[in-house]
Amino acid sequence: MRLHRRPGPQSSAGMEPFLRKRLAFLSFFWDKIWPAEEPEDDGPVPRGSDAEPAPERPAEPRSPPAPRAQIFRALYDFTARCAAELSVSRGDRLFALREEGDYILARRLSGPPSAGLVPITYVAKAARETLADQPWYFSGINRTQAQQLLLSPANAPGAFLIRPSESSLGSYSLSVRAQAKVCHYRICTAPGGSLYLQEGQLFPSLEELLAYYKANWKRIQSPLLQPCRPQKPLAQDKWERPRSEFVLRRKLGEGYFGEVWEGVWLGSVPVAVKVIKSADMKLADLAKEIEALQSLRHERLIRLHAVCSVGEPVYIVTELMRKGNLQAYLGSPEGQGLSLPVLLSFTCQVAEAMSYLEEQRVVHRDLAARNVLVGDDLTCKVADFGLARLLKDDIYSPSSSSKIPVKWTAPEAANYRIFSQKSDVWSFGILLFEVFTYGQCPYEGMTNHETLQQLSRGYRLPRPAACPVEVYMLMLECWKSRPEERPTFAMLQEKLDTVHRRLHLGLT
């Protein structure tokens, strides 16, 4: 068995270009005499009887191809958190066995065979595949660029890629990092169209060829461990996506900081898109803020998918919650019929999210029922945490009453822009009022100026008819004039959970 890496004899080197040019139709014959491979600077190759080929694995039985609608591709990396989940890398192809709530039970079709649960927001249905879709295929690079990529800090030994061959139009080359050097191998084409690295070992596609040499890497003495990671421009953030990837379908609402739309990402992933005018936002701080928010992961916080900050307007893209925001849902016919235990469960879920943000020392600045989203199963997730920090001072300021949500904002924040976890606690008290009035606006009939005046005189909102007395006492605790006297979110979560459990037990 001969591996195509070494040039032909020097004595015939002058004939090779002449014959290849004049008698191109005999290219397969010339490849036999003069293997048209990469130069001989790529390290040792097993030869003759000294080579010890690795024992070949028996071919694994292949499942019949899945219906196209059940093939998914991972949008980005996901690390399993328990034995039931499946770790995937961006670009992995998955066969969806079934949906289980917010997850799909999937079998991996690329990489090591395995199955498990993957969050449905991490995947999208795969379109018809081309080579360009493969994470290991790099169409626009040459040998030198391949070496630079593979030797970059982002890649470790075992990283590999396939690229078009420079010396043979229509052919490919396999480049593999081996410690501090890169080895290049010509992928030849047999007369019938099959591909091979070594004579007698034919493959119908590049995928099959790679799968074989991943399992039998000793035949080329270069393990194929992971596709090459491309280098990103320094200015590009992984959250930044082109606006063309998103289609806005239906306007869900309009808040203080822009419109919210239901949309589709990459033709198949349902998302919520907040649309904000670039003129209103501190774009220089956007990447820094997104970087800070990406580390916040909690089941009661809305998941950020992407941002589009190049051009007008700015998109902030998150997971979609089908029932919309809590304020609108409470005012809907369905929301008006909700029982007291369900209302309490909403408050408990929001307190849990805010307790997590409190632990992370993150201040929301705009906590309100309109920024809490509701799913089909009545789960609640807090959204827009940190967004207010990105708005320009002349937009989010006490002098701009059309923008700052005065009726939800603690007096020290509305008057002096002193935001803290304690100002979030004040806003949570207003959210409790919204929940137990089924979405009613607080301080109804008062202007923002009148609201601040009344608060400075000691006025507080009255107890809603549907609100238990002990929950209203918590509201009043949240509205203490001195911020340091207000409770923590951890304390609020504990007390609301106690009320909810007691009420639930009393009804069963």
How does this model look, in words?
This protein is an alpha+beta fold and 508 residues long. The chain folds into 4 domains: 68-129, SH3 Domains (SH3 type barrels, Roll); 133-227, SH2 domain (SHC Adaptor Protein, 2-Layer Sandwich); 243-319, Phosphorylase Kinase, domain 1 (2-Layer Sandwich), CATH 3.30.200; 326-507, Transferase(Phosphotransferase), domain 1, CATH 1.10.510. 26% of the residues lie in helices and 19% in strands. It is built from 13 helices and 17 strands. Strands 4-3-2-1-5 form a 5-stranded antiparallel beta sheet, with no helix packed on it. Strands 9-8-7-6-10 form a 5-stranded mixed beta sheet, covered by helices on one side. Strands 11-12-13-15-14 form a 5-stranded antiparallel beta sheet, with no helix packed on it. A hairpin with a 5-residue loop joins strand 8 and strand 9 (195-196). It is elongated, with a radius of gyration of 30 Å. Residues 136-228 form the SH2 domain. It catalyses: L-tyrosyl-[protein] + ATP = O-phospho-L-tyrosyl-[protein] + ADP + H(+). Pfam families: PK_Tyr_Ser-Thr (PF07714), SH2 (PF00017), SH3_9 (PF14604). InterPro entries: Kinase-like_dom_sf, Non-receptor_tyrosine_kinases, Prot_kinase_dom, Protein_kinase_ATP_BS, Ser-Thr/Tyr_kinase_cat_dom, SH2, SH2_dom_sf, SH3-like_dom_sf. Non-receptor tyrosine-protein kinase which phosphorylates DOK1 on tyrosine residues. Also phosphorylates KHDRBS1/SAM68 and VIM on tyrosine residues. Phosphorylation of KHDRBS1 is EGF-dependent. Phosphorylates OTUB1, promoting deubiquitination of RPTOR.
